[in-house]
Write a structure and sequence with these properties.
Elements: E1 4-9, H1 14-17, H2 31-46, E2 53-56, H3 60-72, E3 80-82, H4 99-106, H5 108-116, H6 128-148, E4 152-157, H7 159-170, H8 174-177, E5 187-192, E6 198-203
Parallel strand pairs: 1-4, 2-3, 2-4
Antiparallel strand pairs: 1-5, 5-6
Helix pairs in contact: 2-3, 4-5, 6-7
Protein name: 2,3-bisphosphoglycerate-dependent phosphoglycerate mutase
Function: Catalyzes the interconversion of 2-phosphoglycerate and 3-phosphoglycerate.
GO molecular function: phosphoglycerate mutase activity
């Protein structure tokens, strides 16, 4: 029984590069982002991983990352479910703003609170806690059953939707999870026990 869950944050996006708040805005990968996604696929191929199903968000940067990985492991036509439950955190009024400009407008301390607190949302946006409120039910109802049946499942998503998922899997507090840095295009491989607890976790960096 495999019971393997692979999480990958999308490769670098155009707005990551420009230091902009992205959230639900639908931007593409950079050249480096495409390369990071392909490299993630090669790392997973080297492990001999084959997937039973893939999940991704409603946003292009995650979908293209997912497809690069599936192409690399020789499963280009694998069933892939796209759902906005896995979308990045919605940054609301910050979306599209340069992070330095936002600091000038609202002050460094306030922007830091919005970016790095667990439950304080930016204006008209989501906190990490809000993001978790849509990610966790989706995981329990749509994702986890495939894993517990012995499947190998790929999830290509975003920094904050994956933080919310990792928070639940690793049993981290809100304070701990906001400090977690997830590299773009870095696969995280979980093996689950039959009771859904984590048997092992490996991060394929470098």
């Amino acid at each position: 029984m495999s019971r393997t869950l692979v999480l990958v944050r999308h490769g670098q996006s155009e707005w990551n590069l420009k230091n902009l708040f992205t959230g639900w805005r639908d931007v593409d990968l950079t050249e480096q982002g495409h390369a990071e996604a392909k490299a993630a696929g090669q790392k997973l191929k080297a492990r001999g991983l084959k997937f039973d199903i893939a999940f991704t968000s409603a946003l292009t940067r995650a979908q293209k990352t997912c497809q690069h990985i599936l192409d690399a492991v020789g499963q280009s036509d694998l069933q892939t479910v796209r759902d906005q439950a896995l979308n990045e955190r919605d940054y609301g009024d910050l979306s599209g703003l340069n992070k330095d400009d936002a600091r000038q407008k609202w002050g460094e301390e306030q922007v830091h609170v919005w970016r790095r607190s667990y439950d304080v949302p930016p204006p008209a946006g989501e906190s990490l806690k809000d993001t978790g409120a849509r990610v966790w039910p989706y995981y329990l109802h749509d994702l986890q059953p495939h894993v517990l049946r012995g499947g190998t499942v790929l999830v290509a998503a975003h920094g904050n939707s994956l933080r919310a998922l990792i928070m639940a899997l690793d049993g981290k507090s809100g304070e701990e999870i906001v400090k977690l840095e997830l590299g773009t295009g870095v696969p995280v491989i979980y093996q689950l026990n039959a009771d859904s607890t984590v048997a092992s976790k490996e991060v394929l960096e470098g």
